[in-house]
Write a structure and sequence with these properties.
The protein has about 110 residues and is mainly beta. A five-stranded antiparallel sheet has the order 1-4-5-6-7. A two-stranded antiparallel sheet has the order 2-3. Helix content is about 10%, strand content about 30%.
Length: about 110
């Protein structure tokens, strides 16, 4: 699979000290460009396909492009992690988008009822 960053949509997480994708990549593969300050992946071949960078990107500038062995070229996958679920958007070759959600694996804090 291949991680791609839309350099127009990437804002390096605005005023954060370190962009979220750089902070959360377990393989330490997301880095900032020295000239434009935009995020990019150092080596797609080393990527674990965990989608951590995709889930945390606040501008949805990062997408995963699926190999042709799975689907046709031109199909992409974007995700956004929310508190209780992750929303996934699949963009097909014809531009059609389909959205799915998966439950979060994180624990939701206990809130006692009154």
């Amino acid at each position: 699979m291949g991680i791609r960053v839309d350099l127009v949509a990437c804002n390096s997480c605005g005023t954060l000290e370190e962009p979220l994708c750089v902070r959360d990549c377990p393989g330490d593969l997301m880095v900032l460009g020295t000239t434009d300050g935009k995020a990019f992946i150092r080596d797609n071949g080393e990527c674990w396909d965990c989608a951590a960078c995709i889930k945390v990107c606040p501008t949805q500038a990062i997408s995963m492009h699926l190999p042709s062995a799975i689907v046709l070229p031109g199909v992409s996958l974007k995700g956004r992690a929310l508190r209780s679920k992750t929303l996934w958007t699949v963009t097909l070759r014809d531009g059609t988008e389909k959205t799915y959600s998966t439950p979060s694996r994180g624990k939701i804090p206990y809130t006692p009822s009154i």
